[in-house]
User: Fold these one by one.
Assistant:
Number 1:
Amino acid sequence: MERRLQQLFFLLSLVAFMLILAAAWQANTPSWKTYQKKFLALESQGEPNAAAKSAVLATPLQIHQTLLPGLQRVDRCTTCHLGIDDPTMKNAPEPFRYHAGLGPHVSARFGCTICHGGQGLATEKTAAHGNTQFWQTPLLAREYIRASCGRCHKEGDVPNVPELAEGRHLFETQGCRGCHKLNGVGGSIGPDLTEEGASHRSPEWLERHFLAPNAVSAGSAMPNFHFTKEQARDLTYYMLSLTSEDMGTYFSSMRSIPGPSYGRQLFVEKNCIACHAIGGVGAKSGPDLAGVTTRHSMGWLDEQLVNPELVYPGSSMPEYDLETNARKALVAFMSVATPEDAKLIISGRPRALSLDDVSIEAGKQDFSRFGCVGCHGTELQGGVENPNAQGGEVPSLLHVSDDYTKDEVIAIIRNGRVPPIENSSAPPPPLYMPSWKTVLSDEDIHHIADYLWSKQQPKKDSW
Amino acid sequence: MNLIREIWQSIVRRDPLTTDKGKSELVFLNVWLHIHPAKVKKENLRFKHSFYLGFITFFLFIILVTTGIALMCYYRPYPPQAYQDMKDLQFVVFMGPFLRNMHRWAAHGMVVCVFLHMCRVFYTGSYKKPRQFNWVVGVLLLLLTLGLSFTGYLLPWDQLAYWAITVGTNIGSYAPFVGAQVREILLGGHTVGEAALLRFYVLHVAVFPSFVILLTIVHFWRVRKDGGLSRPVWKLIPRRNEKLVTIGAPVETVALNVAAASKDKTYGLMEVVTGKPIFETVTPEEEEDTVFSYPYAFVREAVVLMATVTTIMMMSLFLNAPLEELANPAKTPNPAKAPWYFLGLQELVSHSALLGGVVAPTLMVLALIAIPYLDRNPSRRPADRKFILWTFTIFVVANLLLIVIGTFFRGPGWTMVPPWVHVVAGAE
């Protein structure tokens, strides 16, 4: 018995030793080493003599990585994808092929995953490509890759990716914010979209969802907007670009500063001339903008554009929710703007605005920015389907003054309202008016009411 | 050659192991081995008496300390670096996955073995006089083991960790008056966050292990001082006189049979006193039944040690410790589950927060601690303890059943979903 036990002890010790060896062997033969050896063999073929060949083959095998500390990213993709930056590898088999068309976006500075997705930390194929249960962002399919450009280039036209600007435009004009929050602004009927580009939803899912929301997620309250295939693709691109990772700021030192021409475009789009003048040409409700960049610092101007009331308590300037780059572009334009520019811009407008018009204009901005147009329509016509609500659709706002006073409307915007139900036994209507008092200031709500009243039409049945 | 022998002698300072004196000296002249008696009862070495569960638990703890210290070299207790360090262990640290797997499986193993060890001690009635207090120490060690496992659960900072700890600490907050405060002190805030991770880390690597080491020393010491391992149930003499006398007790003083002083005997500083000791003593008949610890006890312990190590290594080579996506406070998995050993509690909580989350666990722990003092029946023979054996069995089975239900049968919204039905997670 004792002899047997001693033998068992030595046997078990031997097994333990073998297991350690096995674990060490397992650790010492990762698949990336196999790829690196293959790559070195491929590289050595091009060498002229045996000495050079063996020198290449003797290259130590090691993990290659790009560190992006500010983004908490470490990309080890180049451990296997070794020919990414070597043009002579343009016909090499994967994973060694040269990555053409990168322009300034070399992997040594940008890594790979900010565009491609996948799991940068991993050094094993399946895990690295993110096709595992617990990784949010697997590799993006080739046809959707360009959507990633929008993760840094959040404003303006991104070269070769018209879909992004289109998608963004659709998002802001179709009233998506009425139900969805983006960067803290918007309703809460649908899911927050701030992190949509980093969620696990596949691009295909998004695209099908835009074409027919109910077909992919049963019982969805999202109305069918009857988007075309192209529009669905544009919106999908825009969704994929949404992330709260601060890539734009992180890379801003490597990017060109936005030019005044984009600033001018925004200046027209946001209707700044309605309140401001440049060198005496324009409206007088806001300060003259000539020389404003010499009176104030860049930081002051940037903060003013983010939150006018914060810098100037009581300021009537609306918030415009502009991205970092858009603000930079506007400031760039202000530094070069001349009265001639103002004249040209005004000539595109029928007339300068009065103080009342300022409120109406701000209301119009809010009405579209906070997504009211999503349900009530860009022309206040309503008509979005809402089963089991009275009339079966969201009401038009062109005749509210017939039934309500301005104060009543303000109360409804503040507190929200559940629409009257047609059939009490059927499920309640999916859409309702949310309470806006936590999102909108009283001033914003008054602006919106002013805007509604400016659009009221005479009673249909009046003589 | 003589010098080498002299150096060796200066280290071991004992007679050769071929002599009985050498075998004894090996034990009591060695600080690490002297926790053993020089001789042990033959029957106590039998595998079917103790299943060596206490040893296995201790060896698992040794594995945990060793691998844990190695893991500390690669870990930063700060989100989200903590999660990135897990990924580094998985993908770039040499033998990193093996190391983490060993720590993970040894941790689960320790929870299981501590529990089984407790069951063995209960079923053999080994908590009875004079071993009552050592049972209490054992219950405290069980609680510390759960605490260690629970605090370690958070450290990978993935979704599994984050939500298990959120659910686990929520269960604790149902306690009246102090629950919410205790949770806040434990987490360093109202939700699981940076402060919670740092606190759990400190508890996991410093506070709890220190207490486990201290209490283990007490636990081992008491095993010796209470008279070694309890006799196997099958060796119990029926209706044996269980009366014991405290040292120095004034009544019933019986003169000790002290051998006459002789030149062959040496004396230490131990005082010679009268009276019988409180611990179990060995009768002359039983003395016949003992063997030297070397090699009989030591070789068995060595085999158990290597069996434990190889089992954990084998598991670690083929089974990977889970790691889910980065902790995301905004995305609650459905259902969010506590660590498996608390799922029985969570199951109870799902029926009644106060009863299941506070009253039941408190009563369970108090009942466990009180067992040796409530059970006045002096007999350790199963035939004399039918009622209490059945009660304990029902308690154990009910606990296991609740854990099995919580682990395998609870789906989204804590509804009953059998494990063979596939639920698509995250479908909207």
Number 2:
Amino acid sequence: MHASTTSQHALTQPRLPGEVKEVGYESMTVTKVPDWYGMIAWDALLNGMATGLFMAAAVSELAAPAVFKPVAKVAYPVALVLLLVDLTMLVFDLGDPLRFHHMLRVFKPYSPMSVGTWCLTIFSLPLTAAAGLSVLALLGFDFEWARILAVIAALPFGFGSAAYKGVLLSTNAQPGWKDARWLGGYLTNSALLMGCGELLVLSAVMGNTQATDILRTAFIVLLLLNLIPLGLLFANLRLAHARLYTPAQQWRVGLLLFATGVLIPLSLTLLSGGLVFIFVAIIFLVLASWSIRFVYIKIPHTSPLALRSG
Amino acid sequence: MASREKELSKLTQTSDPPGGQLAQVAERLIYPFLHGEPPKPQTPTGFYTDTTVCIGCKACEVACKQWNQLPSDGFEWSGNSYDNTTELSASTWRHVKFIEQFADLPSGNGVSLNTTPGESILNRWLMMSDHCKHCLAAPCNQACPTGAIIHNEFENVYIQADICNGCSCCVAACPFGVITRSDMGGHSHKCTLCYDRQRDGLEPACAKACPTQSIHFGPIDEIRENARKRVEELHRRGVPQAYLYGDAASETYSEMHSFYLLVDRPSVYGLPDEPFNPWLHMMGDYARSIVGGLAAIVALFIALFLLRP
Amino acid sequence: MSRFNSWLNELQPEMFAELSPELAAERGIAHGGWMTIRTARGQIEARAMVTRRLRPFPIEGRVIHQIGLPFHWAFAGEVVGSNANDLTAILADPNVSMHECKAFACQVQASRLDGPVPHPTMPTAHWPTLDPIPQTPASAQPEGRLGHGK
């Protein structure tokens, strides 16, 4: 029960006979679930999309600069915008958003949230520089060496910003979450997958067929690679899901996610490099990625099946 | 937290300082980064709650609420024996639990509040006053990114309420479900072990109010010693199920500075049977996260490198 | 007198009656449901707490059930409920007029009383205020003043 400004008088809310909460403490969950729900699923998604896009663009620039430089120059500002939206969401999800700067008082390497805050803060600086210099380059003012330097400086912190999220959401005492050993592995891998996908969309929009074709193959490789940490994560969560959902429900959602997140993007990308195909493929991928995050976040908020069915 | 002489000079500063909006914003930005002189370390203190003498009077709950001026949690009859508070929260820092363990008659039927006892001991009403365990290696302390949760000079876990920004990492981390985030103000709160009273040389409000001296307070070594003697005495007097929960570190969890003498399985009391420190998994999780990311980066790099014209 | 303090009210917000599972089964009273208790002098309603702590007594070949009632509820206060004293005769101790009769015969039934549901006569205390206690330094504010800091 939580404190409330409205009065809660038992007699003004007549109860049905027999309508009594659980008796005894053995069946009650001991831990308290934090107020992390829909907003955190969106944050996990945007974090992955922003850091993944940046890392994919940086890797592509370093691997094959001749092909990818123009695409990367567009990618960095987009990544910055996504990151800023993500950071705003994070700040507003705090209980007291006006105190968000309190997280910069200390650096606690043992707190994933502290590591993440600092990584994101430091990451945003060279990313802003890289994005700004990219925009200047697109307008004709070339500061190539400075731009590359900014990208390289941002790379480790971008990686850190992607990697901390999974550790944050699995290093706690919440039912289900505490068993997800591979959440970090999945989220970081998925960030790069989505980044590659976003880069693919950008190159298709820009009409750069050479980059698009190369990225299509790379995307398919990453899509298939992502199945490994995803499978490991679902193996971790099997017990938690079994407590919450019937086998039929689990199969339905699992197949739906597989179709949305793997089959459709895979087939569309294999079929054609046209803009519409690519765009729809990535939309489905992002949708599935959000759904996976939401299903994960939902676990401690869902009451066990045994209690629900009585 | 005491009204020492040097604080009295601030008594006149009860209204907003002059200076307008900009000065207030600047103060809000600078204030959390100010550091005073750290207090001198004192003898570590703690609680030991002997549930075998608890009478379930809830004086500890009321004393805690009164001393700390906490709000009530709403008036809802839970039906769970005499426990209508139901849980610890940001506004309930002590919570008395009632567990009825009475044998059914051979022809017994109908709903009862009976819980299957861990041992074949029947016909008892267990009462236990739950609160923050003040763990030595507290997961909430590890999780807190603002540094609001600290171990104070008495080695108790204390939330600095003027620093907390309500991120709820501590809520997620606590294996005992002690902390929650309040809807009023959006910060997290829990038992302070009456830090303000301790600094003035007093014992916590709940320990003072307890009429049966079920709640013992004092230097942790001393009360641990007393608790162990009490368990031995109970064993001699025919209560072999008595044991201490949290007085010593286990494989998966540190010792707690607020431990219990229980007579049944911990889960009967709503405590985790084997508390697990989530931080034991952290390094492995980071490693897996890094491996997952690097695998993708390497795969992407190789693919792009090989496919380049 | 008792029902004006919210810290006490939340500990036991409603009038309830404890009864054995056997009596509950016999009268169709569910745990947490409402029941009326009736004596020759009056009747009250209470939440039913069906508990194994109470057992029927076989006495001289008959089964006698026992129910337990607390007191301290009445028509006034932050929480209100039926008054157990409505069931007893007015037998007062000759010294201080304390209600002497605490044990009596009654009937129970799974139902509520007719008539309007009683309403609290006092609004719940508005807790908490985020304003600091005046003329007190910040370090001496109660910890539970949930408006610490700015």
